[in-house]
Amino acid sequence: MPFDKRKALQTALSYTQQGRLDKAITEYQSVLKADPNDLNVLNTLGDLYARTGNKAEAITQYMRLGDAYRKDGFAAKATAVYKKVIKLDSGNLPAQMHCADLYAEQGLVGEAKQQLLLIAEQCSRAGNMKEALTVYQKVVTLDPGNVAAST
Length: 151
Description:
With about 150 residues, this protein is mainly alpha-helical.
């Protein structure tokens, strides 16, 4: 019997409405297994994992979703998803860098600079001076007139 995606989605939604989130997650996983490119399911799974306290799996789903949006040229959607990751894990450097890059791609230099400076500060506090310097160099490249970053 072939997989009935519509029925599986209805079942998953029903489980979610009943508060049976573990069962809903299992059902959404089966949908994702049948259709790995279903971005709505990736987002829903991320949300459900976050609600159940499984931050690591939520982040995994959100990163996949953000990467897919970015690849498809949906910068604003990708940025929103990466922000979800940062909300769950404020120290997630890949999500922070993706946000900074997307801001820069969209011409949002101020936001990109702000994000990069936060990353550089985080790297410095962690003792990763080489990475901090690399990030500061990105700030200077992005905004050559920024004296504070170039000194």
